[in-house]
Design a protein that fits this description.
By secondary structure, this protein is an alpha/beta fold. Helices cover 24% and strands 24% of the residues. The chain folds into two domains: 13-57, no CATH class; 64-360, Aldolase class I (TIM Barrel), CATH 3.20.20.70.
Length: 375
Amino acid sequence: MADKINLQDPSTVKVGYWHQLDNDLIQCDLCPRECKLHEGQRGFCFIRGRINDEMVMTSYGRSSGFVIDPIEKKPLNHFLPGTPVLSFGTAGCNLACKYCQNWDISKARETDRLLDQAMPENLAEAALASGSRSMAYTYNDPVIFHEYAVDVAKACREKGIKNVAVTAGYVNAEPRAAFYQWMDAANIDLKSFDEAFYKKLTGGHLQPVLDTIEYVANKTDTWLELTTLLIPGHNDDPNEIRAMSEWILEKIGPDVPLHFTAFHPDYLMKDVPPTPFETLRRSRQIALDVGLNYVYTGNVYDPEGQATYCPHCGESVIDRTGYTINSWHLTDTNHCANCGGEIAGVFEPQPGDWGSKRIPIYVNAYGAPQLTPET
């Protein structure tokens, strides 16, 4: 039975990217799932559905919470390092990852979880007032709350706040173009380089994600980084890592940073062990040997795997411990202090000093942030 959609709720708004079919169904054209809906039905993502023969979204202006994070947590190591980013998501998702690390948000089927409310202008004001340099659309996939994310991004642009998408890249061509024209940076989750993995563990397909990665890297000005969560026995085979790295090198070049992050048992895959440290280091070395210039490890203590090295001379230009920058060896914004070689990314003369702080905030109706104790 379809969930009832409350038309009196101001967070229910009409949205685009759909068309009428001949059999009294309408099709959502936002993502490759292309859900076909009867009256009153929600799509797989849960927050988009059909009411009065039109597509609506039920989470506009509503969020599961707002947090100021370090930009490195997204993870983005080459985009305004050391700066704070105001982060938020909604509910639902258009993939069904059995190992989801944010399952309490992305798998939520209750809009009552969306306790915090803020219109786009309020959020832009909150980002400015909190000292955040950018706004991140994250936790669940911003693709599904496309219209809300784009409106927030427009409001942020007007105030000089950058926009960051943290996404699985599972989106169709037309909405993809409309979305990324407002994004200054993105981290796309390349979950595996194997179609069988995508079908079995995410309920999706690999090719649309590869298409999005190529589009963002080659057709936009959006700064791009990639992340692969390595799950023991599922996507950590050295041959797969090599094939993926070779594809990245061929299709989008050596300068797109790649993050290999450690899995921890969660959601429906609690029987799978955590990622061994050696698996992360081995995968990183494979990608470097293939010819990628910037390869990182994450979710572990690994200063070597989290530092940025100059691809020209091999010297460290940014040393990190986790999300904290310890030393900075760039000159003229983005050149190695040792050899003068260019380092790819979006840098400023000096890094920020936000460190590893994570501060939840409440955004009131006027956009003024109220900080809560650090967690």
